[in-house]
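Hey, I'm writing a tutorial for new members on how sequence and structure tokens pair up, and I'd like a real worked example in the thread rather than a made-up one. If someone can provide the structure for the chain below, I'll link this post from the tutorial.
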Amino acid sequence: MRMNFLLTTKTTKASNMMTVLKMVGAALLAVSVTACVTQDDYYNSDQYKKPAAPPKYDVAPQVIYNIDGNRFISLENYDQCYGDTYYNNLKENIHTKLGRGGIEYYRGRLIIDDPSGSNVVIPSARPGPCGNKGCDSSLIYSTDGGRTFKGKVYMNGQTPSVDSENYSILVAKNDFYVVETSEYAKGKFNSYVRRYPLFPGLDFDNRSPYPEGISGETFSTSKKPLPNLRTPSGQDRFICDTSIRPSNLPKKK
């Protein structure tokens, strides 16, 4: 009887082991089959939820920043000043989309005074508050007349849109200035300035040195004055009429 019991026990263990091995084999097969599914298969499947397309509002474009008679920044497809922004140059037939949301939340000063029209710098700011570590806000820059743009972080803050009130972006023929103004004593202000060069092919993401003879610098306005720059139109801030609303807004349920 003891021998039969031992044989039965060994047979049961062997059977259980075979069952486990079959289960493991099936699981590995399933993983290998899943791994063969390509990204294209996933994005074309019902499992992938495509992002909702931006709405199409029936509103006329607003010029939120006018450089001169040919160059300006427009806000399109918007509601209450939130929408798509474009850089325009009528003479060169340029209509470059900059993004949706962000640029119109910048509250600081912007002066573009490059007579060649090659250099364009446009700041943005996040609308809402950030956490304790703050969040970055970027500017975009172009050295080919606004046909293409690249980005660079210029500020980190907990309330970016409000914080941007302390900033000025000044664009000249060969460089641009990021100016941060702060009150160091009651009624007394000082500005910290970062000057960056502008030249064809500039890419701040590429950390290689600037070409020979080109450089940037930092300074305080208490030690060195800023250049006298002025946008041809005289405008130095974004403007937008929040009262303009689309007539084709979705009906509230």
